[in-house]
Amino acid sequence: MYHYVSTIGHKRHPLSRRRYQLLGGLAFAIGLPLLVRMAADPAVLFSRNHQVTIIAAAFAHCLGYLTYRRLGTFPGVSASSNILPTFALAYGSVFLAIFLLRLDYSRFQAIGSFTCSILWYFGLNLFVNRLEPYRLAIVPEGDVERLSKVGGVDWQVLASPSGAFTAVHGVVADLRANLPPSWERFITKCVLSGLPVYHVKQVMESLTGRVEIEHLSENTLGSLNPNQAYLQLKQIIDWFAALVVLILASPLLLILAGAIRLESRGPALFKQKRVGYRGKIFTVYKFRTMRQEQAGDASAKDLAITREHDPRITRFGNILRRTRLDEMPQLLNILRGEMSWIGPRPEAEVLSRWYDAELAFYPYRHIVRPGITGWAQVNQGHVAAVDDVHEKLQYDFYYIKNISPWLDLVIVLRTIRIMATGFGAK
């Protein structure tokens, strides 16, 4: 959530400050490999390829650090888990550009800088977390009881407005409650002294990654229309990325389709009517992972729900589901403008009608294009029951409210990890 916010009551360690983290990281990541190389050949500092590598590595380090810090603001995202992928992406992008420009560079300095960057921020993350655990004080008035159930924070319930309390990163209060004058004066004092004061709803959203909708208002969802400029850019990127992946992965897709046909009767592709962007019905494409059976007495709603250990799933279909490869044909949906790589998952038409009747504001999730993966999928996995879908809806609203390239990058990184573990597959 809000990392390294200034506190009252104690002096912060220099390494908890961003400028010292970055300067220390640059000195360690650039300086250590350079000193090791100079120990064998002092003249290497004056070589052009080494100078190019130092400048490129410094730029990649700064880019990796800024990305790492930005991703750490999203709930449920462990800072340490972001270090390797973000710095790998930063260094990989910069040195790919160096390679394409045919510039000479030092592999030793590049690899050494990348390795030292990883070691520095892993060690720094461990040190700072032990030195300054994230601590918030709670004003015990109004709807604040649920805060203590949320993990990842050292909660301190304040006894009285005049009582002493240990150093904290901020104060949480129910600002909609009718607070006594003594607590109002306490909150004012905190604000004037520089200690952040957060509304309980704001903190719950930041820690859980869910937006609880009470009514459609600007106070609840920010702007009712997400960032249109980013959505248009996102659609262009989605289209080109889907085209490239479809071309490169076409041999794999043909192999998967053949394996499906060999294992069980029926077509390799599964088609289903789903509710998409702005409530429009479209046909989604997936690799078939279930045996084709007669509906019998089962309702359309029951047939549309995939349950835990569903007996209809084939052996090869289970592998496809766990690795999410069954979603690959949806590249066609992206090319047709019906879906995005990232967004709320489209539900079957019959299920969408059911959820719409049971859950308030459910259709609002259709304000953005549905995605192959999304914020709810990487946090919750596959669900179908109304109570679980209500929680899923809160994740979808959080994504719509906070949609950005940074949140999309978090989802991409977590999706890659999920594809390797099979989290949430049914």
Question: Would you mind describing this structure in some detail?
Answer:
By secondary structure, this protein is an alpha/beta fold. Helices cover 53% and strands 8% of the residues. Strands 2-1-3-4 form a four-stranded parallel β-sheet. A two-stranded antiparallel ribbon has the order 5-6. Strand 3, helix 5 and strand 4 form a beta-alpha-beta unit.
Labels describing this entry:
426 residues, disordered N terminus, alpha/beta, flat, four-stranded parallel beta sheet, 15 helices, single chain
Enumerate how many helices there are, as a single number: 15
Structural class: alpha/beta
Number of domains in the coordinates?
3
Could you say which overall geometry the principal axes of the C-alpha atoms support?
A: flat
State the oligomer: single chain
Q: Which segments are poorly predicted (pLDDT under 50) over 5 or more consecutive residues?
A: 1-10
What is the mean pLDDT? 84
Strand content: 5-15%
List the helices and strands and how they pair.
Elements: H1 18-40, H2 48-71, H3 79-100, H4 107-131, E1 135-138, E2 154-157, E3 170-173, H5 181-193, E4 197-199, H6 200-208, H7 218-221, H8 228-263, E5 269-275, E6 281-287, H9 300-304, H10 315-323, H11 331-335, E7 340-342, H12 349-358, E8 371-373, H13 375-379, H14 386-402, H15 405-421
Parallel strand pairs: 1-2, 1-3, 3-4, 7-8
Antiparallel strand pairs: 5-6
Helix pairs in contact: 1-2, 1-4, 2-3, 2-4, 3-4
